[in-house]
Amino acid sequence: xxxxxxxxxxxxxxxxxxxxxxxxxxxxxxxxxxxxxxxxxxxxxxxxxxxxxxxxxxxxxxxxxxxxxxxxxxxxxxxxxxxxxxxxxxxxxxxxxxxxxxxxxxxxxxxxxxxxxxxxxxxxxxxxxxxxxxxxxxxxxxxxxxxxxxxxxxxxxxxxxxxxxxxxxxxxxxxxxxxxxxxxxxxxxxxxxxxxxxxxxxxxxxxxxxxxxxxxxxxxxxxxxxxxxxxxxxxxxxxxxxxxxxxxxxxxxxxxxxxx
Length: 260
Hints:
Shape: elongated
Helix content: 25-40%
Number of strands: 11
Low-confidence stretches: none
Mean pLDDT: 90
Number of helices: 9
Strand content: 15-25%
Strand order of the largest sheet: 3-2-1-9-10-11
Radius of gyration: 20 Å
Structural class: alpha/beta
């Protein structure tokens, strides 16, 4: 009996940005109709220094996040396409710049998801690190617009901690979650393909995954309605709407790998 030659698993690494969630009703930030394109002053919502130093800025940040459409948004067909890619055993990295949790809602696993910019679903005390569900904080925001930690500290006579509470979104001026870039970089370099989906590639260090993968000889696909600074590194540029183009690309890839 002749043994079949061993074939190593085919690996696809993906970086997603705000463009993948626009069809789910969440506006992007830097596109032509983006939130910060139209209202650049709102960038302070996610500025860590403003949050730490100004009560007014903190209250505005919390209120702005409470009114975000992410709370009611549901995954779109593009998110579902990446679930299909993972179930086929081809997706080894889903690094996302989004904090909307739609990849988790769609059904992608923690094994492949790396939330480069954190998540809005949870929050923490910046002093004692107690974890909170952000939805619980939002429920009390009308009576407590500047949330502080209520954890009782035995070593301080059971007085409340009183530290600032902040969502687990990575604000401008903060470091990315520990190990997020290292893991993403490693898997991007080990991949057979690297796809960028809906990112302007303007925010670093997430955008640096493209040249990192390119230097490792990994073919690059950039799927974005607008041009990016790394288009010259792409082996394939796709300008069609993501909700149409990504499911098509996944189906095409699955057919091509069906014989493996």
